[in-house]
Amino acid sequence: MLSQFLVLFGFFALVLVSVYWINQAVRLFDRLVGDGQSAFVFVEFTALTLPNVIRLVLPMSVFAGSVYVTNRLSQESELVVMQATGFSPWRLARPALYYGLIVAGMMMVLTHVLVPASLAQLAEREREVTQNVTAKLLTEGTFLHPTDGVTFYIREITPSGALTDVYLSDRRDPARTMTYTASEAYLVKSDDDRTRLVMVDGMSQTLMAAGARLFTTRFADFSYDISNLIRANSTPRRSIKHVGTLETLRNPAAIALETGNSVGAVIEHIHSRFAQPLLAIAAALIGFAALLVGGFSRFGVWRQIILALVLLVFVKLVEGLVSDPVTKNPDLWPLSYLPALIGALIATTLLWWAGRNRRRPRAGAPLAEGAI
């Protein structure tokens, strides 16, 4: 049973990860390639999002694998045979428990190591890409806003690398608005590693707020430093999702100050990293125990499957409800483990009920031969 659980878990995890990953990859492709980034950057970014996608789909995959295997064993009467040989529901649930523990171990590695590391690296690469002025500005026919108060537009990029019909508006100074237009322009890297926009055959317009006076100047060529357009937007502040578990546990107050969150939000997030893997155990046991209650039926166990889904949704609902109280009051952190505890209690109750139904004889049923 354990091997079947793991095989079906791998199948459902592969399918769900593929669906979620492709959905995110399409959005990343549109954003990165549309901003002039290479295909290598796109592949790197999608790879860095993969651990978080896996973390999201593993609880659903473990539940789907548990329900599918249990349903197949029921339809093929294998569960009936095992119960007839004396296996109690508690003994039958042992492979499901091991199955949940294995998946929980995988999730522990994801939530505490791989996901924070990948998200931190993704944030760092996003900052580097944002600072890449050349890639960000080389988009034809679109009004771009590389930073607040700046608008940039080019009509076309020629095969020789020239930018045609350039428009640049700088409104960062409230007292003065600068507007540049040029028939052609080039992006040039200077010796001090700064990027400059060299405009040819154009005009600059300066609108002074005081007196609403407009000054115009025509030029044959003009150089404009655009390196600072992106540097002004760089934000080195980390997110709580990027910080490792041990670092957060040592000093949650310092992490809260660094990330700009409350101490309650940091405590709630760090305990959710421990609670989420426990939900995988509860999902595996609920999926198995709910189908075990119904026993064998020629019409299938669709009612038990619906029951299992409702119970899992209830557990997830409790998970959402306990988040806000812990965020407001860090002393209530044990509530983070309440969904997993409720899931374990539900699975225990279902297994007890399955054993009770199995021991209780039907009314009017004849005694077995030789019984006194």
Alpha-carbon Rg, integer: 31 Å
Helix content: 55-70%
Inertia-based shape: elongated
| Mean of pLDDT | 82
Instruction: Give the end-to-end Cα distance, rounded to a whole number of Å.
Output: 37 Å
**What proportion strand?**
15-25%
Number of domains: 2
- The low-confidence parts are 360-372
- Secondary structure class reads alpha+beta
**Number of E-type strands:** 5
Total DSSP helices: 11
- Topology as a string of helices (H) and strands (E): HHHHHEEEEEHHHHHH
> Order of strands side by side in the largest beta sheet?
1-2-3-4-5
Largest sheet: 5 strands, antiparallel
Describe the structure.
The protein folds into two domains: 252 residues, no CATH class; 93 residues, no CATH class. Strand 4 and strand 5 form a beta hairpin. A five-stranded antiparallel β-sheet has the order 1-2-3-4-5. Helices cover 60% and strands 16% of the residues. The two termini are 37 Å apart.
Sum this structure up briefly.
This protein has helices at residues 2-34, 39-75, 78-84, 89-130, 133-137, 228-231, 245-250, 252-259, 263-294, 302-328, 338-359; strands spanning 150-157, 163-173, 176-189, 195-208, 213-225. By secondary structure, the protein is α+β, with helices and mostly antiparallel strands.
What brief labels describe this structure?
372 residues, single chain, five-stranded antiparallel beta sheet, alpha+beta
Q: Layout of helices and strands, plus pairs?
A:
Elements: H1 2-34, H2 39-75, H3 78-84, H4 89-130, H5 133-137, E1 150-157, E2 163-173, E3 176-189, E4 195-208, E5 213-225, H6 228-231, H7 245-250, H8 252-259, H9 263-294, H10 302-328, H11 338-359
Antiparallel strand pairs: 1-2, 2-3, 3-4, 4-5
Helix pairs in contact: 1-2, 2-4, 2-9, 4-9, 8-9, 9-10, 9-11, 10-11
